[in-house]
Design brief:
disordered N terminus, Arc Repressor Mutant, subunit A, cytoplasm, six-stranded mixed sheet, Translation initiation factor IF-2, protein biosynthesis, alpha+beta, 870 residues, Rossmann fold, 34 strands
Length: 870
Amino acid sequence: MTDSNDKPTLGRKPLGLKRSVEAGEVKQTFSHGRTNKVVVEVKRRKVIPGKPGEGGQGVEAPAAAPAPAPAPVAQPVRPPLPPVRPAPVAASRETRQEMQARLLREAEEARLAAGEAATRREQEEKARQLEEERRRAEENRRAAEAAAAPAPVVEEAPKVEEAPAPAPVVEAAPAPAPVAPVQVEAPKAAPVEEKPAAPAPRRFTPVQSPAPAPRRPEAAAPAPSKKPAPSRGKAADERRGGKLTVNRALNEDEGARARSLAALKRAREKERRAHFGGQYQQREKQVRDVIVPEAITVQELANRMAEKAADLVKSLFKMGMVVTLNHTIDQDTAELLVEEFGHNIQRVSESDVDIDTTVDVDADETLKNRPPVVAIMGHVDHGKTSLLDALRGTDVVRGEAGGITQHIGAYQIKTKGGDLVTFLDTPGHEAFTEMRMRGANVTDIVILVVAGDDGLMPQTIEAINHTKAAGVPMIVAITKSDKPEFNPQKIRERLLEHEIIVEQMSGDVQDVEVSAKTGAGLQDLIDKILLQAELMELKSNPDRAAEATVIEAKLDKGKGPLATVLINRGTLKVGDIFVVGTQSGRVRAMLDDKGRQVKQAPPSLPVEVLGLGGVPMAGDTLTVVESEARAREVAAFRQEQATTKRTTSAPASLENMFSALAAKQSVIEYPILVKADVQGSVEAIVNALNRLSNDEIKLKVLASGVGAITESDVNLAAASGAPIVGFNVRPNAKAREIIERFKVRMKYFDVIYHLTDDVAKEMAGVWGPERIETVVGRAEVKEVFPAGKHNKAAGLLVVEGYIKKGLHTRLTRNDVIVSKTTVASLRRFKDDVAEVRAGLECGVVLEATNDVKAGDMLEVFEVEMRERTL
């Protein structure tokens, strides 16, 4: 190769003593408009036309000798390439920013060319690819044979028009690799003869291009006259990047940095597709069975189909439906969408959405023994809570307002023998009827507490009826055995009236005499409870999803909505997803009756659950479900059903409309707002207040709820003029400000019968006193004569009773009331008198009326205003 470098390097002039290092600035451009200037050194390589064969010059020159052969092909295809290489001289005619932009443009063109080649390869079929490989192998063989004669290649170097030879030369295995980059430099130096062709001498690293060099001719093999251009452009781009290493590195980094994440993902996707031969994107669509209820949102349907929600919205737009992701569509529309996307639909009705626990029956082999649940019921002040305190060894009575139980409590005790018993303490006041009924429905055994010195009372009889309706066994506990008035035999006889026959009277109902004060009979009571539970064989399946009943619910300021639940079956665990009534949630924590946190709650254990979405109704069933989506679906369905039930009215008719209008005009409404600490108290208060209504005045509960009195409650009360009744709750800070501003009436209570008495008096005051009329006399008008300028006097004959001055009168004509007025003046002859008795004649002047004729009847009556009571 040293023999071919006899000539100076294509006529370039030696640079002499000119500076070989120039200082310049490169402007870096980053994403988001950021820029930075970096000072770099641009070195010029000194080209000295030495002897052929000295040093590295003698070795580089031969590389430039064979260059003219491929040069003619690249020159017409890539016209912008010749002015690119003379970087030191071009600096005087174009700025570095322009050169940098040009280099970036050429690099981008090279990348685009590579992308196009990859796309073409991707679209070719396997058979086509195999044929192409065979054809390329044949061409490579011919190119290798042609490359064996280097002399003709050197002779054709100055010719710019001959193109066939260069392609085979570039295709040669290791040796042509350095030739390919040099071939591009020869034509660049030829057109710019006045400038030294710097590319050939300073490009001494052509060994880096063997990998891309063979790929370009392979892609260009089908059309040798047109395809070499991108390959030469790629090689030239790589060679030119060698000089401006700093600029090129900065620009490439910046280009990668400026590209978006989506562009990078697309590039990686192209690489994968090219690697897998175009089979990467061929994926089989997964057909799903989509469960569709009667109404479903677009987003939920997209989730069930595993499709993009935007695609569903587009399809609905094409159908003429303008919807969003949160719109609800019917089942037929959902079916069209499911079939359009190639899935299978499974229709379900509304009843299928809700949870039906009646069909979920546990197998006998899964059942295990569980503790009994015992409800203590009876009349108020008969010692129910005191008895439970004695059993628990605690004192709950002191914590209850007024000494009466107003909440339903749930406790679990451990006997001396290690047995567990769960007790429910229900209120005995008449207002808590529904609480007692709930307590009877969720228990296994009922202890009927009857005071031995008092006997059977109304709530005792009510508890007996609840127990019979629930169908649970009963144990009669006759309390207060320490009092001298204690008479248990009288209680047993009175129980016969209600078909309760105790064992001492040859019946099947157990009874026990106890005293909560002295503790007498407590152990006997526990033994009888355990005996009854053993006879009942109480069992449950603990190894399943939990199912529980809400005993009480409230809203705590620090903990949020709370619910005291009794586990019926299964085991409730922290983290379980559940639905209770119209609310859903996840168990964040559980507290037992002593305030200790527990991780699991087995059957028959009462626990307080935290993590509810809202305050449920007492008596609702808590059911653990598999996912949050299922819980929300069931809760939304139940909420919709409750709303429909609440807002649905009877079919309108003309008679109903007039009767309702007449009732509205005649009935006085008394609005009120109720807030209490627990859901059971709210329920009891509202029921007790509704019983105060009658035909003339009706109590209307505008709103009721659990928790503190909030500003929204105060605003509603201020707008309607209604008082707010707070039961064991108080307003918050913002609510107090609004109360002071609007002077809203507030009523606070902690005993329920105090609340009902006060509201009854308030309603009676709004209703007003009762007007009572008493007829005291009647008279007949005999003659009418003038009295003064405007008035008329009537001459009367008192028929019965008496007439007094100032009394109320009714003037009737043919038994039709003409006017209501009072007696303004009463005279007998010419004297004013206070009273005229029956059988006497008198003259009267009626107040504010002159419509008096002979023959009219005058009815005189007294009015008494009497205070009302409810």
